[in-house]
Structure formats: structure tokens, C-alpha cells
Input
Amino acid sequence: MNVIEVKELRKEFKSYSSRSGLSGAFRDLFTRNYKVLRAVDDISLQVKQGEMVGYIGENGAGKSTTIKMLTGILTPTGGEVRVNGMNPHKEREKFVQTIGVVFGQRSQLWWDIAVQESFRLLKKVYRVSDEDYETHMKEVIETLEIEPLLDKPVRKLSLGQRMRCELAAALIHNPPLLFLDEPTIGLDVLVKMKIREFLKKINQKYKTTILLTTHDLADIEALCDRVVLLDEGKIIYDGRLDQLQKNWVEGKEVRFEFQHPVELGSLEMVSSQFDVKWRQGERSHQWIAMVDGDDDTVSKLMSQVMLNHSITDVKINHVSTEEIIRNIYEEGMSHG
Amino acid sequence: MFYFSIFFQYASQYLKTRLTYRGDLIVEIFSDFLFQAVNLVFILVVFGHTTLLNGWSREEIIFIYGFFLVPYAIFSSFFNIWDFNDRYIVKGEMDRVLTRPIHSLFQIVIERMELESMFGVVTGLVIMFYAGNQLGLELSWYDPFVFLFMVIGGAFIYAGIFISLASISFWSDSKTDIMPMMYNIGNYGRYPVDIYNHVIRFVLTWILPFAFVGVYPSAFFLGRTEWYGYAFLTPVMGVIFLSIAIILWNSGVKRYRGAGN
Amino acid sequence: MGNFSVYVEMIRIRFLMMLAYRTNYYSGILIYSINIGAYYFLWQAIYGSQESIEGMSVTQMTTYIAVAWMARAFYFNNIDREIAQEIQEGKVAIEMIRPYNYLGIKTMQGLGEGLFRLLFFSVPGMVIIGLAFPIDFSNSITVWLLFIVSIIFSFIVNTQLNLLTGILTFFLLYNTGLIRGKRVVIDLFSGLLLPISFYPMWAQDIMGFLPFQAISYIPSMIFTEGFTGAEIYSALGIQLFWCFFLIIPIQLLWVIAKRQLIVQGG
Output
């Protein structure tokens, strides 16, 4: 069964532009210029139960707008949305009972009151029975290690502490579907790791479907098998993360550190049987080979080079996901 | 039932928080009293220079003011939405509200309630009884019931007007200074509307019907029979204005653009 | 004061910010007009058949009310609430390390807002009201000039009181009650609702010792020519006195607040 079913979803905003300067502002008083901006442009998407999907894109690519339509906050301009078998904004109150939402930059908790009081209010709001709350939340609180924070008011918590409480608050009604919008923004590495472990755990235990937007691709690498890449409101890639890496990266990059300065000509000579491009590193001793081919080819090239020149160091670089994605945005999806 | 239990849950939480900052609570209650006194002072000072206001005596005007305070207290306890645009639209808190399984307007009502404003009910009743006594008014058995309907009607009118104004924020992102001014206009319903010219009287009766939160319903208790028709319209107007407001609100929520766009 | 152009920039930015909100001002003028109109009829009813009360005619009274509300659009601002909010959100600590005077910046923002409302709100509003109701505009240039000087003082005194209530947030944590109370007191004691001369003598005596009359009563009386000759200059003297006197508590509280901020680290 598909938890999220989206067909040709579209959202347009009217955006007003202001004229510059004082006289321009004065003219804006009477008539304003506006243009229609398509924030989400005919997106189609299916997510199955238990999937963890990374939803990524640059600022303004339409991530938040999509999430807000999927959670019933915004009404779509066009297209179809069904989430958990419902139309989010039409049956909003019934629908939100089945989802959990965390906005990294916005608090769900009451600022002045103790964390557990906030939990109690939310328990009422989501009509969670005492037993369900006991069994489920006890575990959540334990795993997130927030027991000692429960009697503190939210304003006294650090960002990392608050974020863990936010996560717990979003799970009070044990929703089958969780939306996380930048859940790790501004957190330190340790807290990030804790949160990732926790998300993995609930995904395994409850088959919770998770849709996650983030700027930190390490989150995606740690959690998501599937990524959806968004650019200017359109999906430009939807598939497995490792597939993305494989498709994009043709071959590897080998960095040689020679004992003596080496000429390009001699390197090209020894590597003439390979499909390779040489590039000078930062120093005259350093050369970088871009090899097209599998691991076998790479190791053959390396031994060939080392037979002819003595080296001090050699390194095979993997292209990071971040680099891949940066490349995609810079050069488009043509390689894929 | 669910909404009732949620309401009490929030109310008890609210009281707990407020009692933590007792100092501010006391100052706030005091400033409410001050506010109520200011208007009374205005009436007293004015009647220091005249004996009748278009045929209405000082005590009658004071009685109307006393009545006004009761629906107004209920309104200001539960409908603190004058800063809705700033607090919920600009700062994006509406996003959070919309992810919870309770009607959005109801959530805002319970999040923003200020129960201490209910003290105004007491002040209002005291003023009414004082003025009524001076005027020698008799209390019939049905008066409390009529009073209840009038008060609810009045509170609904206030709520309706302010909810409608707050709903504008869904269509227009610009902030408005209308809300604070509207509190001022509300004051004019406390004077006999026949002192105004027909345009203002029309506005106060049918467009911004603040006259139903003051002079019209009070006319019933003051025995001004010529106004009875308007007096009995109070609860009807209340229901109509609140319904319009809720319809406006609901269609506004569909237009909500979210923050930061 | 540091870099002067920063402050000018603040006025300009706030001015442009206000300009961006347009619907505001059409509806605002309309509502102000209804407001003043209602007052006009209320006062007509109060006067009844009397020619004058406390030496003021109905026309003078109407003018008084109109100008008092229009001047309010200029001196009124919410910087007390802004300061309170910035303190609660911990933003003031950041403002402290900037190379300007925080209170100065807040004042300039208030001024930008005030100037905007004066130009786009009060002036057109006053023209509309002048057409709709019998209002006496003075034809003496001196009266207009003195009025302008006087509303500048109004702005200063009102802003100082706002700064004072704003800074008090440092010591109260929550002060919505105080802010609200202050507003009510200013509406009543400043002469916005009623000229101070209408109050009983004993009340007038007390108000003579308070800064509030400097906000609304004095400029409105100058405009309606309720004050004449030497009265005007002594009234302006009172305003000037409060402008300087209020600096003392503000500076005092600000120094203590800053010290507290350093100790607690925000």
C-alpha cells in the first residue's frame, strides 16, 4: 500500500515585487507588481509503508512547500494528494491524527511549561489512552534519553535537548507516518547521531514511514535508501541513493605523490593503455589521475605507474554524495 | 465533549503558568481595573458639565457601561486575536496549529485565553447594580435569563468582528493597525446611538454592530420600550456575526500561504 | 552617539517598511474618521444647548479631539512591546555588541514610523475630517510652528515613557500588564480623551506633577488656540522639562540592566 500518493501536485504563489527607492515605494502604495511563482511544479510521487525517504534540494526548491501540502497546512493549486488514504487539507483534523511533524526551526512545545506538561497536553490533543502512552512513550523517552529533562521548562533547554523533546512530542500518538523538516539543523554531531539511531529504531520497530528534508547529507546517507531530488519545483531524481552514486560517478580519482618531479609526457606514456586524464596537483610532485573504468582497471593503472616512478603516497578518492549533488545542480541531470 | 476536556486541560495549564508570574498577573488585573475606571471617569467628568445626554441621565449611561463590561470581559478572555497576523501568520505559528487535530480557531482561542479578564464581569455587575439601584429598577424573575442571552449575543458580536478582521490576514500579508482602532470604535456602542448622525448609527447597528454590545440590550433593562425591537435582536445578531466570521475563517485557512514565502 | 548615519538609515528603513503595507492606510484613515466623527456627535450631545464648557466652544472641542487623535498617530509607537519582546527572546544581548546605542536605534525606528503616519495618515486624514466636520484651522503661522515644536516634544516624552516600560522588562521578565496599564493611563491623563481643564481642580493639580499632559493636552491646546501668549511658552517649557528629566531614570535603569545582562549573560 502506498502511504503517500501524489499526482501532478502543483502550488503557485503570487509574489509581489516592490519597486526600488522612495518614489517606487510610493507607487507601490497604489498598484503593486506581482508575478505567479510556481513553487511546486507537477510533482508525482509514491511512498510505500516503512520507507525512509530523503527529500532534498536547494533553498527555495519547493521542499517545504511540498511537505506543507502533504501535511495539510497548504492547499494545493492543482493535482492530487492522498496521504494515509486521506486528502490532507480536506479532512485535516482526522488526517493529522495519523501523522507526526517536526519542524526543526519551530517549536511544538510550550515555552513556559515543563516538557512533561507539554506532553500531557499533546496526549489530550491526540486522544492517546493512558496505557498506550505509558508503553509507547516510556520507550521513546528512554531511547532519546530525555528522562532528566522532563520537569524542565522548554526555555531552559539547549537546542539539542529541545530537539530530542520535539521528536518525542511528535511521536506521542505513535503515528505511522513522520515528516521531519530539517530535524538536525544546528545540532552537534553527537546529538545528530543519537537522533539518527532513534529514527532507524522506530522505523524498524513500528514500520514508521519517514519523509525527511535536510541540508546535512550525512543524515540521508545514514538513514535513507531512497532520495528524491528537487530542483525549481520539479523532481529531477527519484531512486536509490547508491544508484545515484553509481550512475553519476564514472570511475575514480587517484592522487599520486611522487618522490621527484614528474613530467606529464612520461605519465601519459606509461598509462597509454588506460582511459585516463592527468591533472597536476598543487605541487610539481603531485599528479591526479581521473580513470574511467572499474576497480580492476584502477589497480592495474596504479601498479603500472608505480613500476616506473617511485612514490611517497597514493590515495583513491571516492566522490562524496555532497559533491555528486552539487555537480547535479551545477551541470544538470544529463549524466544520470 | 472532547473540546470541553481540551479546554479545561488548557485552562488549568494556563492558570499554572500565570500563577508562576504572579507579579505580572496582579499588574495585569490592576491595569484591567484601571481601564474600566478610565471609561467611568470619562462619563463622570462629562456629566460634571451637563445633566442629560440627549435625554439620558448619568445613571442610565453608567448602567449601559456596566452592561457592556460583561460581554466585553468574556470576549477579551477568549478572543485575544488582535495580534493574530503578527503572532501566527508572520511568525509561522499557524503551521504548527494546522498540524494538530483540533479546529484551528479553537486552538488559537485556548492558546491565547486570558482568564483574568473575567474579573470584568464582576466590575460590570457591580456597576449595573449600583446604577440600577440609583434608578430604582426592579428585577423580574426572567431578567437574569434575558441578561444571559444578551451577554452571549454581545460577546458573539465582538468575537465575530475581531475574528473576521483576523481572517483578513489570510488574504493580505500586510499588517494592519485596524485592530487596536476597532477597540476604540467598540466604545461608541455604549452611548445612546440616537446622538449620532444616521451614517454612524447605521454603521454601529448593521456593519460594526457594537450598539448591540451596549445601548440596545441595556435599553431593555432600562425600560426604554422604543428600543425593544433592537434589544431582542442582540442574540440573533450575535449568532449571525459569529457564523459569518467562522465561514470567513474557514475559507481563509484554505488560502493560507504559510510563512516565509 | 557613534555613527550618525546609522540612525538616519534606521528612520529611512522603518519608513520604507511602513510604506510596504498599503491596504493599511486606506482602511486606517476611514476608521480614524469614524472614530473622530463619533466623538464629534458625542460632544455635540454633551454640549447640548450650552455655548461653551470650560471656555471651549463645540467647534474648538471637535478640533481638539481631531488634532489629538491625529497627533497620536505621530507620537504613538509600540517600541515598548518591541523592546520587551527582544529582551524575552534574548536578542538584546546581540544588539548590545553592535556599534550603536540600542535605545537610540529604537527611538529612530519609532520616529520613522511616526513620520510615515504623519505624512500618509494624519495629513490626508485631517483634510478629510476638515471637509466633513466643522474644524477650526488656525490661520496664524506662529501657531502652526509652535504646534510642530510641541508635537516633537510629545514624541520625545511618549517615546521616553515607552523606553522606560520596555527596559523594565529586564526586571519583570513578563510585563504585558505594565505595558497595557501604561497605555490606559496615557490615554486618560494625557488629555487624549478629555482636555485636562475638564477635570475637577484636585485632579488637575495632581496631573500637573505628571509627565502625561506633555503628550497630548499641550499640543492640542496650542493647535486649538486654547492656550495663548505666555501660556504657550510655559506649556512648551513643561514639555522641555520632561524631555530632559526623563533621561535620568532611563539612563539609570539602562545602566543597571546592562550590568545585569553581563552578569547573567542574557
Q: What stands out?
A: Chain A has two domains: 48-246, 250-317. The radius of gyration of chain A is 26 Å.
